[in-house]
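Supplementary Methods S3. Complex input for the adenosine-5'-triphosphate-bound model.
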Amino acid sequence: VSSVPAVRFDAIVKRYGARAVVDGVSLDIAQGEFFALLGANGAGKTTLISMLAGLTRASAGRVQVLGRDVALDPIATRRLLGVVPQELVFDPFFTVRETLRLQSGYFGLDRNDDWIDALLHKLGLTSQAEQNMRQLSGGMKRRVMVAQALVHKPPVIVLDEPTAGVDVELRQSLWQFITELNRQGHTVLLTTHYLEEAEALCSRIGMLKLGQLVALDSTTALLSRFASTQMLFRLQ
Ligand code: ATP
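Predicted complex, serialized as structure tokens:
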């Protein structure tokens, strides 16, 4: 395994006016890691992810994906990332399959149907494949968002609060699939409000509070250091 980190945030800052919503975050996520970024509403998780995805420009600092700078090399880094955004973004009149074909087309993958079928199967979407997006329930739409992020088999998978408002069954099947991808070598970066989720899935946790990384450690060390979950929550 190469020592180049999958993701590197280097003294990254994002200001809106005078206010820094991300305030000097430095963090390396190793290749193959399953990493959780934990933080309350407004901590800056989504802002950090959108700088990683090249959707928001940093005010200062650098972001790298597998050694490539996001600002200097946006197209190459986009290919390395599979980002599942918090909002559901899709064309309501496309079928599920068309949505995934369109996304494959963005990456120049014209013959991707075998992998699309595998994704549909893994995410329990096979019988919805020919339905229009607007006909699907919220949970089904979210599954499509996950499939969409994975059409190009990205080495680094980023999920921004994917289980917010999602029922238990979907939550479990989603985590099973993402864990499987992680075991196959994909790096996973997850943002969440839920400590239990981070604890169950991730080997390392970074805690973000008001734009700053206030704790960063292995899950076991973090939990034992803060003796009780209660104390950890106070940190948030
Ligand atoms: P949540 O869990 O609610 O999604 P978060 O940790 O993802 O929270 P962000 O969405 O990154 O937090 O927001 C961090 C802070 O930045 C918030 O206080 C938000 O109001 C502010 N913010 C985000 N985008 C903008 C913007 N375009 N202009 C001004 N302030 C913004």
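Residues 16, 21, 39, 41-47 surround adenosine-5'-triphosphate (CB under 6 Å). DSSP finds nine helices and ten strands in the chain.
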